[in-house]
Amino acid sequence: MADPTLPDPTLPDPTSEPPPTGPRRILIALYLIFAVAATARGIVQLATTFHAAPLAYTLSLCSGIIYIGAAVGLVTSRWWSRRLAWGACGTELVGVLVIGTASLIDRAAFPKDTVWSRFGSGYGYFPLLLPLLGLMWLWYSRPGADD
Amino acid sequence: MIDPLAYALVAAGLVLGIWCGIQGYRKLPTNDPLMIGAIVLEVGLLVQSGIGIARLQSAHLAEPVTFLAYAIGILLPLPLGFFLARIERTSWGSNTLGVTAAVAGVMTLRLLQIWRSGLG
To answer: How many Å apart are CA B10 and CA A128, to the nearest integer?
Structure first.
């Protein structure tokens, strides 16, 4: 299926720098995986054991929704896409830093882990890495960036 | 779940991930063996999820819903990587497929954990 938003894929020559569409694909894959993982986790936890840790589980679901937002922002190419991606990636970075720090300081408030607890150590620190990668890509691929 | 199958799938996921990574490092798009490898791995995951879900009732897991979510969720990354590698005919396509293959391998490990913890 051809993506109408992308330039002709036959153009880039292998000796030059990789085209900016490439990193975006890998980000799309990672964000979609995390969107599904975090959302599913949030829904399962809220549905089965809401009383155990309402704050943590609600946060899991929220993080999942934010990952979905970032993924939508990366997949689409509308006027609001980049804004959505900036907003979602920025929120994630703040979220993982705040929740990560809070979960270390006040363990009692987070008896059950969320995706963002301890800076996402349960997920190989990808929750911390992912927004950084997303923001980096948004910055380097911004309109008007020098080629 | 069947332990040898699960371990084979973990190994296959990681090997495919590394193989794709090498292909990406060499600035090459995915080739046929890699795509076939991804399909074989996905079939293995399907068989595993099928067996796991079929045995779910008799297994008396502590977290059956979580297991079910993982058993279905584990099937998603590879088709996504496959699709993205098809449209991205550069080294980034290889990297993307590699990441999704490794994710599938790691998720298999988690699936096995959930299965074991429930059996007690």
So the answer is: 24
